[in-house]
Design a protein that fits this description.
The protein is of the alpha/beta class and 264 residues long. Helices cover 51% and strands 14% of the residues. The mean pLDDT is 91. InterPro entries: NAD(P)-bd_dom_sf, Sc_DH/Rdtase_CS, SDR_fam.
Length: 264
């Protein structure tokens, strides 16, 4: 349990399923107030109702398609206007489409950039002045181990996560003297519906199934670190070790792990 979450308002994007839904659950379990964003109003309404009934907390939700910039701006403006404060932001929403770049569709490329980068920047841009005015806050950006170690068929996805990592690292230094914490979360494959779109064939998911992370455990780890000084959360540990090895010896690891890298 994390007592620091109690009575705190935490904005979570991509909250209608997977990691985002479990983050909302753990926020409510710890006595916090989740503010949920996703495309599916029906799912958000059900989640909010369950959390309020089970944990006796307020739960707010807003429908928004984060791939549509103007729509997300309008909704985020409304959120800021309707809440006296936002104590934490978890930029969880993200999507991937795994394919060789030469075979990619531009609409898929554009949607990954919009959701993984632009929408994340928009959410952060909206809440940062709000947090600075209150002298505190916590921003958590869900990146990926792909942002540290790119592999074939994920060139664009990895590029978006590289961008998130770079933004997170710079923002952390900018926000330090304002009392605002910034944490990056770098994950390997997680057992969620993410792969239904990223890998419709199911080949990659079957290949990595034994090593997939549990979304509930990931969410618990993230919520347990809210409002604490935590630079990064890296899961699983063996993949983070691989990322560090790749950083030191990129040519060697690409040769050694050629088959693994091409399992998508």
């Amino acid at each position: 349990m994390n007592p620091l979450v109690k009575n705190k308002k935490v904005l979570v994007t991509g909250a209608s399923g997977g990691i985002g839904q479990f983050i909302a659950i753990h926020i409510a379990m710890n006595g916090g107030t989740p503010i949920l964003i996703a495309r599916s109003a029906d799912k958000l309404k059900v989640i909010a109702s369950i959390l309020e009934e089970k944990f006796h907390v307020s739960c707010h939700w807003y429908q928004a398609d984060l791939s549509k910039e103007e729509e997300w701006k309008a909704v985020s403006d409304r959120i800021i206007a309707e809440h006296d404060r936002i104590d934490a932001l978890v930029n969880n929403a993200g999507l991937g489409v795994f394919d060789y770049f030469a075979h990619s569709k531009w609409e898929d490329i554009n949607r990954m950039i919009q959701v993984n980068i632009t929408a994340l920047l928009r959410a952060t841009y909206q809440v940062v002045p709000h947090m600075i005015a209150h002298g505190n806050g916590h921003i958590v950006n869900i990146a990926s181990q792909s942002g540290k170690m790119a592999t074939p068929k994920s060139a664009v996805y990895a590029a978006t996560k590289h961008a998130v990592l770079g933004f997170t690292n710079a923002l952390r230094m900018e926000m330090a003297h304002h009392g605002i914490r910034v944490t990056g979360v770098n994950l390997g494959p997680v057992r969620t519906n993410f792969f239904a779109q990223a890998d419709p064939s199911g080949d990659y998911q079957r290949a990595v199934e034994p090593w997939m992370l549990d979304a509930n455990q990931v969410a618990r780890r993230i919520v347990n670190q809210l409002f604490k000084d935590k630079r990064e959360i890296n899961l699983p540990a063996w993949m983070e070790a691989g990322s560090k090895l790749h950083y030191q010896f990129p040519g060697l690891t690409e040769k050694m792990l050629h088959k693994q890298f091409n399992k998508k």
